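Hi V.,

You were right to ask for the full record rather than a summary. Here it is.
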Amino acid sequence: MSSRGDAYSSVLDHARKHSEAWLSTVGERRVGPRAGADALVSSLGGALPEEPTLPEDVVDLLGALAEPGLMAMQSGRFYGWVIGGTLPVALAADWLVSAWDQNTGLRYATPATAALEEVAGAWLLDLLGLPAADVGFVTGATMANFSCLAAARSSVLARIGWNLQRDGLSGSPRIRVLAGAERHETVDLALRYLGLGEPETVAVDDQGRIRPDSLEEALRTVDAGIPLIVCLQAGNVHSGAFDPMVAIEIAHRHDAWVHVDGAFGLWAAASPKLRHLADGITAADSWGTDAHKTLNVPYDCGIAIVTDRVALRTALGAHASYLITDDSGPGDPLEKVPEFSRRARGVPVWATLRSLGRAGVADLVERLVGHAQALAEGIATIDGARVLNDVDYTQVCVSFGDDARTRGVVARLIADGTVWMSGSRWHDQDVLRVSVSNWSTDDADVQRSVDAVRNAAAAVAV
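Predicted structure:
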């Protein structure tokens, strides 16, 4: 009789071969997918088979049929949205996470993965210079913002004597939420999930940074005793700009909870050369970030960091008689995230931090910024191109004179496939938007990317 391990050996070997085939070509292949979802549904679908199929055959089908529809997001020339690649050590650790298959909710049940996440959380606080806090590993930046703002909601209502857990939101005092005009959509989404509605908009400057004078003016209209949350940003999705963190002091004078959406920008604090961008950020009450972006671990791995442990655990914690809970200081992982059941997504963070060390993380972030600046400098030499933002971090926005030509350049780039740079709209004009987030991007990628933009621009009439 074969052992349980034998049941995995052959099929995992097939999966490894397909993985290695993909990874060995991802750096040189066309960046965009070669087939659309409709065509893939046709090839992958059809009637559900009546009889079983050998697992090895299923994996081979999956590897072959999915390949035309894969985006080479791990390519050093992929600059879409804000999506990092995957460091080799992080991928290997994630394979172990799947093999171990630990439901990382309780310290008692899964002490190894709980301990790994606790260590990773402590290392993150140290690396980013943040104060003592609870660290929860969630799916991404959206749920990081959600978790932090859930704690904020509980805290600001508790300050005025409202028991949210007992009485709910119905009939509660209205919470006023203020955020910059160029906040990320995930902040609005988290607020919507929490029943708080759209935030009140505060004016920003030409780089999308919240204006402290406008925030001060807006806060003067808030009556004393009104529950108040202020959302700030570390890394504007178009310009990469950071809100001036003097806004934290202003908000705290009005007894507001201050949350910082630092999905990709919070990592600037890990670099001695870049942490000035986030000066004062440690005074906030909560921070959300996404390790899949700048830290380059696999999906999914958002991080919620909250200084008020009682508020976070009151908002998200769960207790049931059948759970064997841990009442020690660190608490159970399920108290810090919205889920009961989840994979040990903090383990690749532990592996990445252990591999890179403090100096390696700083070097990673600084290289991303350096490549963004090199791309901006190269693109700026192209006839008709104008870089619209101050490239202090990892984002670059470019116009090619008018909206029609800019859209044409974007379309040419995507059709060519050498790079992936997506279009967007910023300051009432169409832009080519570049986000440098991949650890594998190198000088050669930068040069090929600038050349690809130059060729696309030359092909689109002025």
